[in-house]
Amino acid sequence: MSGFVVALTGGIASGKSAVERRFEALGIHAYDADVAARAVVEPGSEALAQVARTFGPGALDAEGRLDRAAMRQRVFDDPSARAMLESILHPRIRTWLRDAAATDRGPYCILSIPLLVENREHYAWVDRVLVVDAPEDVRIERLTRRDGIDASLAAKMIEAQASRERRLAIADDVIVNDGDEAALDAKVAALDRRYRELAA
């Protein structure tokens, strides 16, 4: 196992992916919960079969893959359906991430987990929590530009997640990403040095 595991999180449009890319450029493996979420429902998987049994054939597209758009709509409108889907997927996502960390051979590794605050008890085994933080107005501006949506929808998307305060409360380290993306280079490099020392 990578002797040292850093969980990376942050709210939507805070810049997690940009931070993740910079760690990878320094030779550190980053394992993403979003990638895990796709991997665990590949055709032929037990998770996909269970989703189809639970939600019916409408959960799958014409190729027999998970119909993400249909499921997103379904769980968005129905909290009990969302809880049911999460009960199928989340334990498998956690296992996938733990297995990835266990087989990693780097000095340390990153687990990118957007919903870490909501699932913190399941990741008690990680060594550090790194939060990428940005002010709400900056995130709204990024979301409207990135997704072509209006500011009120962007604000609703931010509001649907754990609060900035809750994320900062679990942080061991914080990167404030409120300016130019190039400013992240020095911040990530400094944390990389620190994590290598801690891992040693």
Automatic annotation (TrEMBL):
It catalyses: 3'-dephospho-CoA + ATP = ADP + CoA + H(+). ATP binds at residues 13-18. It comes from the Bacteria. It is found in: Cytoplasm. The keyword ATP-binding applies. It is an enzyme of class 2 (transferase). Pfam families: CoaE (PF01121). Pathway: Cofactor biosynthesis; coenzyme A biosynthesis; CoA from (R)-pantothenate: step 5/5. Transmembrane segments: none annotated. The keyword Nucleotide-binding applies. Keywords: ATP-binding, Coenzyme A biosynthesis, Cytoplasm, Kinase, Nucleotide-binding, Transferase. Gene3D superfamilies: P-loop containing nucleotide triphosphate hydrolases. GO terms for molecular function: dephospho-CoA kinase activity. InterPro entries: Depp_CoAkinase, P-loop_NTPase. Its EC number is 2.7.1.24. Catalyzes the phosphorylation of the 3'-hydroxyl group of dephosphocoenzyme A to form coenzyme A. NCBIfam families: dephospho-CoA kinase. Belongs to the CoaE family. This is Dephospho-CoA kinase. The gene is coaE.
